[in-house]
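User: Fold this; tokens only.

Assistant: Input:
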Amino acid sequence: MVKYIYILLGIYTCNEILRIMSNIAKKICIVGDFGVGKTSLIRRFVERQFSDRYLSSVGVKIYRKVVEVNGKNHQEELTVQLVIWDLEGSNKFKKITPTYLQGASAVIIVGDVNRQETLVHIAEHINIFLSINPTGLIVVAFNKMDLTDEEKVSIIINNYQYQEQERVIAHYPTSAKTGLYIDEMFEKLANRIISGVEG
């Protein structure tokens, strides 16, 4: 016999209720210096689009995407709504960035492999995020891989490992133009966030 429960004037089976309840929303911030390609990374992931035209974010822009992740013990699939906050990278905006980082489960910190100064600033972004969300997860994206050679990127990744930061769970060489590692990056974060919620 199938049991039904009434929720908001609707009739659902137990399995349907579990699926409804499993749609969890989690905030992820994307930070980095001006012009490193934050918006392009997000648009590639959310909208499957890329434009060579420079896309400048003013203040904050919020995107949403639902992804499926493995549940506890990989026995069920859960849906997670990623609420992705694209934060402006200008020096003027950096003064108020901490306000927008509050409540984030994770952050993706983006550097441009062709601009050394943006890579140097990654450590600063890590420290700011952890000062507000000490248990948050961090992924570092070495972006614009399509504009450089693999040997150079390999050196960069070796130089910027952040092994002393246990909250940094991964580094990815990315390209918004080709889509390199973008899905993997967001999916890894979603899975780690959920495993932390269930744990």
